[in-house]
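HUMAN: Forgive my ignorance: could you write out one protein's sequence and backbone structure tokens?

ASSISTANT:
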Amino acid sequence: MNGSDYYIPALATGFALALKLPALARNWPDPLLRSVCALLALGTAVFFFSAPPTIARVNRLTGVPNVSGPLVYVLLSAFSASCVVLMVNWRGGPAEVTRRTSRRWVAGYGAVSLALIVLFALGDAPVERLRDLDTYYATTPYMREMIVLYLTGLTIAGVAMAWLCLRWSVQVGGLLRIGLVSIAVGYLFNLSYAAAKFTAVFARWAGRDDLDWLSTHTAPLLASVAAVFTAFGFCLPLAFQGLRHRLTIWSTYRQLGPLWHELRGLSPRGDQPQRLSWWPSAELLVIQRESDIHDGMLCLYPYFDDRVRSRAYAAAVSAGSGPDQAHAVADAVMVTTAVRARAADPEGTALDGPVRPHPPLPAHDVPRNLVRMSHALRHSPVVAAARTAGSRPEG
């Protein structure tokens, strides 16, 4: 009766939710992140309010015997809907279709939750039952319908989730497939939970109580196993996806380093860094580094020479570079040549000279082009040769 088998998972899911809340505050429009947080919040609530000590406490505080029954059933229904909505948003697709499908599931289980409350209000359940409410009131009018309704809702969600996961798993591979199969297995255990409950309830309808153990003892065990498989299935791909995203962002930040150092100090604010928050995100650091690079390029614009770039492009192609890489090498040569030309022109005479057309910087796929240019600055022999030769744009 101490409820530790319920409170420990509640603490675990609550801790996971606390870790996600800062990201939710920063990216509230993200439907996938909202779905994950809703799932964690409802999972925490289900475990907490299903614990027998909490059930007894809620019943005493409200003064209504067994009011915890419909409360837990409503939370389970909301949790079922949140799982399906998370899966729909996780899989993706046209935004309008995803929103419409999510709204339908939420509306459907919202109607189920309302019906559960109404049926409990109409029923008569004066004797408090902490563990066997389903079988004790299986033949009581309105309570009977409430029990069947919540089990039916769980069954529908279980079938939908298992089908969605298995159908999607054959189209993907790697950790995502492992996660989807794990979720499907978890929901098969959930279906076994509902089957055990239904069997005990149907036995009560037939006037037998010798199968109550299926509802009281077997079903909670099946639910615990289902929670383990489902949590593992959701957490593994999402955690790996988040880690991969973070690694990609930090890799971009690191790869932009050579180009950023080449242009550092050319922007109007000089070498003084932009003031950021005390703990800036990786995305913010990448944006700031890209902004510094673009500011430096704007200062170099009068010193860019398309003839330098054309010669460097021809040299890169001759050295065996593909078109995209040759363009990056040519841009890198033009930038580093312009940096030296600007350093040799402290009076800024190029700014007062005749206006002539300057080569445009790449406008498409900007982050990738900047990374290619940065890589060329450090590794291209064409850029190294241009630096050694001391190329200068003509004035």
Q: What stands out?
A: The chain is about 75% helix and 0% strand. The chain has two domains: 4-244, 259-389.
